Amino acid sequence: MGKNVCILTTVHPPFDTRIFHKEAKTLVRAGHDVTLIAQHDKNEVVDGVQIIALPKPKNRFTRIFGLAWRAFRLALRQRADIYHFHDPELLLAGGLLKMLTRAKVIYDVHEDVPEQILTKHWLPALLRHPLAVVFNAFEKFLSRALDAVVVATEGIAEKFRGLNPVVIHNYPDLRMLPDLSPVPKEGKEKTLVYVGGISKLRGALEMVRALEYLDHVDGLRLDLIGRFEPPELERELQALPGYRRVRFLGWLQPPEVYGHLKEADIGLVCLHPEPRYVVAWPVKLFEYMAAGLPVVASNFPLWKEIVGGNNCGLCVDPLDPKAIAQAIEYLLTHPEEARRMGEHGRQAVREKYNWEKESEKLLALYAELLS
């Protein structure tokens, strides 16, 4: 028999791919009554999920303190059997829900937050390290009081050793993917694509500078899909010679993203060797693979294992625009090999890197907590 599940987020949009499309809809299909408390413009039911709207906060301070308190009060009214929250700023709310109810409480950790703090441009540089140390201790202390910790990668799981974290990867949901058979590419311009946050640490400068080494390649274009972080980065990129070959498409809904992936030739994921990225399992990598795109990826050991192990692309030094350009040119000048790499990636997603397999872990955790 299904139970009442209340999912909370004050940071993510209501239709976040992991929270809504993967976890919430999986729980609905399993027969649970699912409520999602998130920033939205109205209360509504979508795909069986009851969304309770939170107002959009005026700034980061009101979100962290005011909106988190409001989400806690709304959650308390739900009298849920399980509370499942997704943001570190909801740790206090999660602890209070554990103290004041008989429900089980799950903390879902998407990112290595202490490592993130070290690169927050809006925090004074002198405060970042001490804040990261304090938050690391705070996060571990409160997590021990909860019933389960879910993490998105093995790297994050290492930070929660001793708490038996459950690793649930953020792999593509095959149900969400349309027919991603690539469109015929004869006679069309060659398209590189990058999907995700557009920032310096995610290789924005290097990707654009790589285009300068490919000036002799006719009809080449880089599609950037996402948001600039921070917004001022857009002007910095526009000043680079390679930017004349960039088409900035902004943030798009998943169906639109998949439409552009179908028409692309190569997927780029050249993140810098930051500690949290080196052990990450980037969703964009697996989405490129699902679309049958050969990839040019950072040469981190884990990523080399995924890309090289499945022969689905090339790994390069992400800090070297010339190396990125050489990998791109190799794939463009070896189309048959690039096509085979794309097929290998697609097959790997079908067989192992997909949400269908990860959802079994989520349901097993819920069954254990509710038994």
TrEMBL record:
KW Glycosyltransferase (keyword) present: yes
Domain Glycosyl transferase family: 184-347
Glycosyltransferase subfamily 4-like N-terminal domain ranges (all copies): 21-164
Keyword S-adenosyl-L-methionine attributed: no
Database matches in InterPro entries: Glyco_trans_1 (IPR001296), Glyco_trans_4-like_N (IPR028098)
Molecular-function GO term, any one: glycosyltransferase activity
Keyword annotations of the record: Glycosyltransferase, Transferase
Pfam family, one: Glyco_trans_4_4
Protein name in the entry: Glycosyl transferase family 1
Species of origin: Bipolaricaulis sibiricus
